Amino acid sequence: MDSTKLLPPVKEAIEKFPQYFHEDVTYSNPLGAAWAPGRVNLIGEHTDYNGGYVLPLAVDRVSAFAGRTRNDQIVRLWSTHFNAYAQFSLAGLPETFDEQREPLPGWARYVLGVAAELARAKVPLKGFDAVVTGDVPLGGGMSSSAALEVASAQAYALFSNHAFTIGEDNATLTPLETAALCQEAEHKASGLMSGILDQAASCLGQPRKAILLDCRSLEYRYLPFEDPTISVVVIDTSVRRELASSAYNERRKQCEEATQKIRELFLQDEPDNSEAKAIKELRDITPETFERYKDRLPELLQKRAGYVIAENERVLQVVKLLEAGEIEEAGKILWIGHAGLRDEYEVSCKELDVLVDIAKDVPGVLGARMMGGGFGGCTINLVRSDAVDALSQAVKQYYPERTGRQASIDICRAAAGPNHFLFDK
Ligand code: GAF
């Protein structure tokens, strides 16, 4: 790879390294950089931890590290975003992970969490100094934490001088093993009991491709996503909610309760029914079975399960429509998905709803919905490329007057997964 073609956050990290790390350390390799992308999700929200389908694209926004390997077990990091140093030791991991996490800032806990999972997987780790940068909006629903985790895994591989590798062929860890390990790090470092959507999207990204992933079997296939007349527009509400992760974990529990309840009711009716016996997650409940039992569920569980079961079907519908070139019809399904997230799953917020409403009135917007965990963050909009300016104008005009906030608008392209670069000297 040619260093002039590196992405802006990677270049920034490389340029800043000598500024923040001086010659008080003996380094054992030349300067290197490692990075991983954030993602958007076309459809399939809150389906991943229910064993369902998702349809993300990795995007051209990354989390990046640039640094050098040390001769000891210390990791020192400088975050350009937080303007802060953090330091920890790799000695004794994974057992020491819990004790060590407390004094570290949140962003560094993800980096340590990934080291703990790599240590659990018995790969050799080395200390390093690095500058951490990125342009995935933090906490904005585009998986900034997964990008940081996957970039961390990539950085550990690079700074171990490739004592272990990540990749498809003969590598120590496959992309999906890496995703699973990063998901585990997310659970332990942040307490968010996320599914695998974000980490898998980051690990599997390819330019001009969407990824259809079955979150149970972890089988996936790529769909071409390269029509230049269609743009993926991400609009950030600027809302961030601290309590979003407890609400997320609560939704997850409600899904488990609904699954359990439907299974019980089904088995009471038909003790030998193999479909009933096989129910383990909401993914296993067909729309027909749900229709049959939904009225016997408490109202809250009925809404939660109803949303997930329908959303899973929506992913497959969107895939069919995209494959048939029917992008307008696919877009319509995004509006329906948003209504479900707002009214049944109840993870939207006023600002997300306002953005979706504004988009609805702009000709050329084919579909829009909130994206990610919810309670803030951003919307994803499928837009005819010649209508992007009109959408941007409408958001600038109406969003501040209806919410008292400013929104930022970005066009994203499907991009490659994690990668690294090593200077010759
Ligand atoms: C967050 C989680 F991290 C993902 O696993 C997924 O559940 C998503 O919310 C909702 O689809 O990004």
Write the layout of secondary structure elements.
Blueprint: H1 8-20, E1 32-41, E2 53-54, E3 56-69, E4 74-79, E5 84-89, H2 97-101, H3 106-120, E6 128-134, H4 144-159, H5 175-190, H6 197-204, E7 209-214, E8 220-224, E9 230-236, H7 244-269, H8 274-277, H9 287-293, H10 299-323, H11 327-343, H12 350-360, E10 365-370, E11 378-384, H13 388-403, E12 408-412, E13 419-422
Parallel strand pairs: 4-6
Antiparallel strand pairs: 1-3, 1-13, 2-7, 3-6, 4-5, 7-8, 9-11, 9-12, 10-11
Helix pairs in contact: 3-4, 3-5, 4-5, 4-6, 5-6, 7-10, 10-11, 12-13
The chain binds 2-deoxy-2-fluoro-alpha-D-galactopyranose (GAF).
2-deoxy-2-fluoro-alpha-D-galactopyranose binds next to α6.
